[in-house]
Design a protein that fits this description.
By secondary structure, the protein is α/β, with parallel strands linked by helices. It has a single domain, classed as Rossmann fold (3-Layer(aba) Sandwich). It has seven helices and nine strands; from the N terminus they run βαβαβαβαβαββαβαβ. The strands form two sheets. A seven-stranded parallel beta sheet has the order 3-2-1-4-5-6-9, with helices on both faces. Strands 7-8 form a two-stranded parallel sheet. Helix 5 links the parallel strand 5 and strand 6.
Length: about 260
């Protein structure tokens, strides 16, 4: 079978773990040259070493997505080395936790720096190159918190909601230039970020009861949707914001058995 990602140059932010790692592995297995970025070199190098062992092409890029200059220069470097950038997966995120009345302005804004500003900077810089070539794909990773309010995570919820509307704006503005932009909306995914809420069997079971499929997602299950949206198989899909949440967002209320 011919890979739908053959010869693609793909950037995955937050590629050292979780959904980013799973996406990088999948894209590399399908023939893309993947650049994974994050703030810490160690997890990036561990993922890269594993991908190379499996025969994939991967590069690591240590940078802070919440820093405009680093994000912009990082993408410029990719284009300088490869002459192109075909796919950007904006997966990096940060969040603060706490009651609204106790949230400082600094904590509130911290939710937006990586999730919203970083996504904007990556889109802006990569989009310039994509538009010039007349093609390209962007996949932004939002969250079910972006369509439903989450207590004690108001800043994160607001930031992930902003990603969804920004995705639609990019799709509308850049569609005529051949650049597609879509978003995925994960529910509960088994990643390091959710380790706290899935810390024991009781916690996991209580969480699973709220999901129609009665289980949490693997990072790979989210990655498959990201890979599809970033491929030519999705050539007529843009501006879509697609849940991958086991049916959680389809349900008005949860019916518990027993």
């Amino acid at each position: 079978m011919t890979s739908t990602h053959q010869k693609q140059i793909a950037l995955v932010t937050g590629g050292g773990s979780g959904i980013g790692e799973a996406t990088a592995r999948l894209l590399a297995s399908r023939g893309a040259t993947v650049v994974i970025c994050g703030r810490r070199a160690e997890p990036l190098e561990a993922v890269a070493a594993s991908i190379r062992t499996d025969g994939g092409q991967v590069e690591t890029l240590v940078l802070d997505v919440s820093d405009e200059a680093q994000m912009t220069q990082g993408i410029q470097g990719i284009v300088a080395r490869h002459g192109q950038i075909d796919l950007v997966v904006n997966n990096a995120m940060a969040y603060s936790w706490g009651a609204i009345e106790d949230t400082t302005t600094e904590a509130w804004r911290s939710n937006f720096l990586t999730t919203v500003d970083g996504t904007f900077w990556a889109c802006r810089e990569a989009g310039r190159h994509m538009k010039a070539r007349g093609k390209g794909a962007i996949v932004n990773v939002s969250s079910i918190c972006g369509i439903f309010g989450m207590p004690w995570m108001a800043g994160y919820s607001a930031a992930k909601a902003a990603v969804l509307n920004f995705t639609k704006a990019v799709a509308a503005e850049w569609g005529p230039a051949g650049v597609r932009c879509n978003a995925v909306i994960p529910g509960v995914v088994d990643t390091p970020a959710t380790a706290g809420m899935l810390q024991d069997e009781k916690s996991r079971k209580n969480t699973e009861k709220l999901i129609p499929l009665r289980r949490v997602a693997s990072a790979h299950e989210v990655a498959t949707l990201i890979a599809f949206l970033g491929s030519d198989d999705a050539s007529y899909i843009t501006g879509a914001c697609i849940p991958v949440d086991g049916g959680r967002s389809a349900e008005l209320y949860t019916v518990l058995e027993g």
